[in-house]
Amino acid sequence: MNISIIAVGKLKEKYLKQGIQEYMKRLGSYANVQMVEVADEKAPDNLSENEIIQVKEKEGERILSKISQDTFVIALAIEGQAWTSERLAKELDQLATYGKSKIAFVIGGSVGLGKAVLNRSDLQLSFSKMTFPHQLMRLILSEQIYRAFRIIHGHAYHK
């Protein structure tokens, strides 16, 4: 299985990089997982609604350029479905069973994901109704993908 985590912006925090690297290393025995960063747009706190839409559109174009037609896309969005870790494992296992070997998880930037990316997604997944920093979501998602593969393979870890 080939999994891409497509994220907006450059990760700067050393502690997050270290955590993600650890999960990427652990995931190596289960799947080919890569982190793909796309440039973010400058987004000061006082953007108008129109400017927010423009930022989402520009970042969205960069995201979509990294996704092939045969990729199953899971967009992380507060409005998405909320799953348990076991459900994520089941869904990933079913995708692999039915020939969906390319999966992309998409993490938006500070203003979220635009309509084009959400429309391209096959699924919208919510980790919480709370808002998390998009940089931290990379670590949380990496851990949950690792946990899902541990569950799929019946290994102790997920409890």
From TrEMBL:
Documented EC number(s): 2.1.1.177
NCBIfam families: PRK00103.1-3 (NF000985), PRK00103.1-4 (NF000986), tRNA_RlmH_YbeA (TIGR00246)
GO CC aspect terms: cytoplasm
Function: Specifically methylates the pseudouridine at position 1915 (m3Psi1915) in 23S rRNA.
Enzyme class: transferase
Chain residues that bind S-adenosyl-L-methionine: 76, 108, 127-132
Protein name as annotated: Ribosomal RNA large subunit methyltransferase H
Alphabetical UniProt keywords: Cytoplasm, Methyltransferase, rRNA processing, S-adenosyl-L-methionine, Transferase
InterPro entries in alphabetical order: Alpha/beta_knot_MTases, RlmH-like, tRNA_m1G_MTases_N
GO molecular function, one term: rRNA (pseudouridine-N3-)-methyltransferase activity
Compartments in which it is found: Cytoplasm
Superkingdom of origin: Bacteria
Quaternary state and interactors: Homodimer.
Chemical reaction(s) catalysed: pseudouridine(1915) in 23S rRNA + S-adenosyl-L-methionine = N(3)-methylpseudouridine(1915) in 23S rRNA + S-adenosyl-L-homocysteine + H(+)
